[in-house]
Amino acid sequence: MFRKILCPVDGTDHSTLALERAVELAAKYGAALTICTINVAHGTGRSPRINHWTDDQIARILGDAETLAKQHGHADPATVQLVAREVGPSIVQYAENGDYDCIVMGTGDKRGLSRLMLGSVAADVAGRAHCSGHGRPLTAGGRGISATPRPQRHPQRGECAPQHL
Q: Which of 58, 61, 67, 101 has its CA 20 to 30 A from that of 14?
């Protein structure tokens, strides 16, 4: 069912759970797995760009994620660093350009004012994605919820239905 799975990570427990689920899905469907991280660029056009993480931090986040994926059975996950001003749109654009048919990502437990002020990257991706999306919250039982994007027609692949965990 899935050929290419994209799993954005940021080194948190939420993204670790999502990566474990992405590895499970990749094994189940024989899909390729790409682990990515988004280094948020701060600054305006007139000021110097300052990235949220250093190169060493990015290397550690991606290295730890790659090691975890290999420990859970995926022999050769690809890794990539994206630099963008906005996380959600950059994930969706990379997924569309790379012809990914599933995005698996962690989601926290933002509610109320923090959700209103900070938003949710998983919700943003789910609302924009052309493909299936899986949000993986950090819960005691490891229960998964689906971040189900609205179905849209993809020009080459036809209908892309949301999948539930």
A: 101
